[in-house]
Design brief:
The chain is mainly α. The protein has 3 helices and 2 strands; from the N terminus they run H-E-E-H-H. A two-stranded antiparallel sheet has the order 1-2.
């Protein structure tokens, strides 16, 4: 709830408004929990997204979609952070 209360309620990808109450699928892990378990609860690794964008992102399909550029840049930065800590 801390993230929900601190951030604007818009999808990081398509900017769609995310309505109250918050849904679990609004909270996206930028880098996967399985590959980076230490980033699981890192607030920097949580982005807000709509169901559609979250699904596309989790399926690994956004590489060529310019709408996902902000999220993919965030992913790159977080991966660097955790790769240098290992």
């Amino acid at each position: 709830m801390k993230i929900w209360n601190e951030r604007p309620h818009y999808c990081i990808v398509c900017t769609k408004h995310l309505s109250d109450p918050p849904k679990t699928y609004y909270f996206m892990h930028v880098v996967p929990k399985g590959r980076f378990p230490e980033a699981r609860l890192d607030e920097e690794n949580i982005a807000l997204g709509c169901f559609e964008c979250h699904t596309v992102y989790d399926q690994g399909l956004p590489q060529n979609n310019p709408l996902f550029s902000k999220l993919l840049k965030k992913k790159e930065n977080i991966e660097q952070k955790y790769n240098t800590n290992n």
